[in-house]
Amino acid sequence: MATKWVIKDKKKAIYWPSEKMKKKANMSDASIYKKALNNPKKFWSEKALEALDWSKKWNKVYESKPPFFKWFLGGKLNASYNCIDRHVENGNGDKEAIIWIPEPTNEKPVVLTYKDLLEKVSRFANVLKSFGVKKGDRVGIYLPMVSEVQIALLACARIGAVHGVVFSAFSAESLNDRLNDANAKVLITANGYYRKGKLLDLKKKADQGAKGSPVKKVIVIKRGEVKTKMSKGRDYWFHELMEKADPECKPAEMNSESPLFILYTSGTTGKPKGVIHDTGGYLTYAYWTSKWIFDLHDDDVFWCTADVGWITGHTYACYGPLACGATQVIYEGAPNYPDWSRFWKIVEENQVSVFYTAPTAIRMFAKQGVEFVKKHNLNSLRVLGSVGEPIDKDAWMWYFNHIGNKRCPIVDTWWQTETGGIQISALPGIGPFIPTVAGRPFPGTNFVILDESRKEVKKNEGGYLIQKPPFAPGMLRGVWGNPKRYEKTYFSDYGNKLYFTSDGAKYFDKNNIRVTGRVDDTMKVAGHRLTTGELEDAIATYEHVSECAVVPEPDKIRGQVPVAFVVLKGVKESEKITEDIIKQVIEEIGPTAKPKQIIFVNELPKTRSGKIMRRILKKLVINEPIGNTMTLQNPESIADLKKKTNYKRK
Ligand code: PRX
Questions:
Q1: pTM (2 decimals)?
Q2: How confident is the model over 302-360, as pLDDT tens digits?
Q3: 592 lines ligand 1 (CB under 6 A)
Q4: Is the CATH number 3.40.50.720 carried by domain 5-505?
Q5: 267 close to ligand 1 (CB < 6 Angstrom)
Q6: Fewest CB within 10 angstroms: 158, 257, 484, 631, which?
Q7: Which among 429, 501, 427, 497 has a CA at the least distance from the CA of 465?
């Protein structure tokens, strides 16, 4: 019988850590919350020293010039040294750092020990240097989950270059926008990748994306026999460069506040914003959240299923676990290849003990039925995690019952690209674990839920989730090239001393928080963040579109899906136009953004000042009363809209 890590409260659907879990956990003392909150600067100062190797200690722990703030000023360190070298120096060079599982089942996993990682990262850092990449330069990364992903990120970190990863399913246009915005001179990509049994071409998209951008050199990882066009003088094969490169590279000494990476995310306008994360604060935060929330021990095998294109892939499939010296599984492909039991096969074969995925994936698995799960022994699992969107009770219970076999705590982790690491969650050694309740602000972070008049809400009343200073060390330090946007997005609704998360929330009890979802024009499609603005921009560039509005529609599996209301000009609606618009969105953003439905309407509902009333469209797609239409400029538009959204009522 496998160990029970969790026990049920007899009266309620609430779970607590078992005595065994409390004993095993890295953190099981609930007084930590109060202690950290009493003096967060002291707490983080101690924690930064304990977690990382600094080549020079800071002389000032925190500085605030609202809305800007800094941590560990004057401190120096290198992120790649902290993720690799020190583990090798401490005698753990032979420990497995990464177990990479290819999608094709006839290929063997690639195992990289910390020693292997050191050699490969050093070689690649020298390659980047030989291409003229210097401290502070930006390097674009357009990679799927190939076995070289962490090597690419850490090689940039080793020489102090700032990486900017672009999700490989994003379009050439998205890549081009981001390379231009970051002014990246080097791009790292792959010739192809496997998805659901097919070898897809990535290089072609990378070429289109690099065209007209500042990129001068492209490094191509060979992942399969795809016919690849290499431009002489610009494109180089990774394996050829690596062979010739020196296997030693001294890590660059970086300021704690030096940017480690930029990661683009959707903002409320069409143009994505480059969220900046620093080195010392980010890594300290990544380390402690990995250590306490995933309760990483020396013998754990951690698997975070996120792609490196997202912040979750940065923090919990690279920096966090590696800084902790953990062993992690990385899987290249689709969860349903060759069938829906693939994930559980990987868990069993690699004895995964901590597993972290998204509610969308859980709902997908639940839909397929438990037979796929039952084929495998999942007794190695100890902690389960969820991320990316609110997890509904059904998905939570299915995850708990069928994957955790009622033995494992579920940490429902709330955070954002901007927060760099998890900020609200239960801790496995403290609990409680409650379906739909993310839990408690991480020790050393401080949250309140306020209403519009900035008053704190009472239990179970809805409000806005706000972070109070000092802001956690993992928080973003700005928006690349656009400090005004940083201020306007995060530090204007509640003044420049409070961080507005754009999420709605409720107090479940005096400690625990239930996050209810975004309150801005952002939607979460299969956990991916998209804004109505970027979708509308993509649709509006189609020549026959006069105007459009996009709203989310709830979806049983994907959480939300986009629905577009479109007014055409000069042509009549047709299937061809619908297909063209959908194609346009896929080309401009990527398949994640594919609208579920294009609804052609005569007019969009507008206020007297001409603003589109998305609120009304949202109500129409969920088939709820639309409320007062008195303030509309064109109330007559409603009859047509109701008729067109009739499909919802059938
Ligand atoms: O709305 C929240 C939701 O995801 C948003 C952040 O999206 P992104 O920057 O793409 O980062 C996702 C991965 C960290 C948040 O503003 N969100 C994320 N996790 C949760 C969540 N909503 C509820 N519960 C969560 N556990």
A1: 0.93
A2: 999 999 999 999 999 999 999 999 999 999 999 999 999 999 999 999 999 999 999 99
A3: no
A4: no
A5: no
A6: 484
A7: 501
